[in-house]
Amino acid sequence: MPLQFISKPSSAIQGDFIVPGDKSISHRSLILGSIAQGTTTIRGFLPSSDCQATATALESMGVRIERFQEDQILIHGVGKYGLIAPKNPINCGNSGTSMRLLSGLLSAQPFSSSLYGDNSLNKRPMDRVINPLNLMGAGIIEGKAPIFIPGGKTLKGIEYKMPIASAQVKSALLLSGIYAQGSTVIIEPEPTRDHTEKMLETFSYPIKKIGPKITIQSHSNCLGCDIAIPGDISSAAFFIVAASLIPGSKLLIKNVGVNPTRTGLIEILKQMGAKISINNLRNYGLEPVADLQIEYSPLKGMVIPAAWVPNAIDEFPIIFIAAACAEGETILSGAAELRYKETDRLAVMIAGLKRLGIQAQDYQDDLRIIGGAIQGGEVDSHQDHRIAMAFAVAGFIAKETVIIKNCDQVATSFPNFIQSAKSLKLNIEEIEHEI
Ligand code: S3P
Fold first, then answer.
1. pTM over 0.90, yes/no
2. DSSP H or E segment with residue 304
């Protein structure tokens, strides 16, 4: 039976807190560790179902992955040319990152493979990654998943000006570029998360980055290494907003990744009036990490420019909850990409906000939310993990209980979300519900 969250008005949150490892970095560490020469150790790995999908895929191609603790793993790299044909189609579950990044890797392998996902993933656009891979010679049939990759092709490097800002597409092309003849050159329309570039460097694989242009060539190898993964700012986001909204709160979230390609949420909230300080800034390898101190502060609506979207791409569900509680209106423009996530996040968030008494509307790919008082009620997350957690936070500051339906996918990015919220004495329960 599907899970639902029952979230109730909660009192101030105080104290120290940590969030699980970064999802994007966890996927990348698995993939590069698998094709590296030698072993790779990973601390702070995110043991979520999305990352498990990538791990299982790589195991099905002959990679041995040992788990010492949930978040500590050892990968026995098979080397650049050491993957073997998987016996079965690869199940990516709900994970767009698994499907898109593995498409890049698998296009360059000598064997054929296919990738499929759950109902949500099978509906998401894949041409954005298939088209450039085909320009390199991958020979994949266009369309949505399942994706069939013929393999056995000699890929050729291309110069590709990406029509949309997508770190997943960029990463798929970097992975195929590790094998392609000549140079693979990727030009980004806006900067997106650069974890793949940083991780390639960590694995001693050279890439060149000049402004929006990234170049990779095939005549190098990834070398196994030791990786420490920061806490995921996209998971911290729910508690950053909760602490900003619940009067009297003062929360310290330790060891959070603050890569500048991911900190759009902090910039947006600060501009809305949030009190967030970035302390103890340091690095885990090439990834910047900090302790974030958040204090309650009344928020004001703002106009969020389209250029800010990529840096906060996964945080909009929770930003919309902040906007719903802010004084005045918040306008977001150029948010079309939100329609292609685990759900159409513009539509699902607007429907939920309206059910909780907040005025919200979209016009093409722009969105307008008028701040007010969140009422109790029942909303449906449509199995979108970030929407489920965003409405859980709405319940903490609502007038009455908020019930959120279809929350099973929260484990794709934040397996212990409920326990973490309860550790801060937030008023939330999960129960099974009838369909
Ligand atoms: C991700 C990139 C983003 C993000 C996703 C994770 C990644 O997707 O929304 O959750 O790990 O590269 P897009 O590349 O589609 O923007």
1. yes
2. strand 303-304
Q: Are 388 and 409 in contact (CB under 8 A)?
A: yes
pLDDT at site 193? 98
Q: Tell which one of 27, 95, 193 to mutate to probe ligand 1, the residue whose CB is within 8 A of the most ligand atoms.
A: 193
Distance of CA 313 from the midpoint of ligand 1 (Å): 8
Q: Ligand 1: does its nearest atom lie under 6 Å from the Cβ of 253?
A: no
Rounded to the nearest 5°, which phi and psi values hold at 400?
-135, 180
Sheet holding 377-380, edge to edge: 377-380, 402-405, 3-7, 428-432
Cis preceding-peptide flag for 163 (omega within 30 of 0):
no
Of 116, 226, 223, residue with least CA distance to 178: 223
Query: What does DSSP assign to residue 434?
Result: -
211-244: per-residue pLDDT in tens? 999 999 999 999 999 999 999 999 999 999 999 9
Say yes or no: CB of residue 50 within 6 Å of ligand 1.
no
Burial class (CB in 10 A: 0-12, 13-18, 19+), 295: middle
The β-bridge partners of 69 are 72
Calpha distance 398→379 (Å, rounded) = 13
Neighbouring C-beta atoms of residue 296, cutoff 10 Å: 19
Residue 246 has pLDDT above 80, yes or no: yes
For 178-196, b where at least 16 C-beta lie within 10 A, e where not — what string?
bbbeeebbbebebebbbbb
User: pLDDT of 295-319, one tens digit each?
Assistant: 999 999 999 999 999 999 999 999 9
Task: Collapse the DSSP code of 292 into the 3-class scheme (helix H, G, I; strand E, B; otherwise coil) and give the result.
Answer: strand
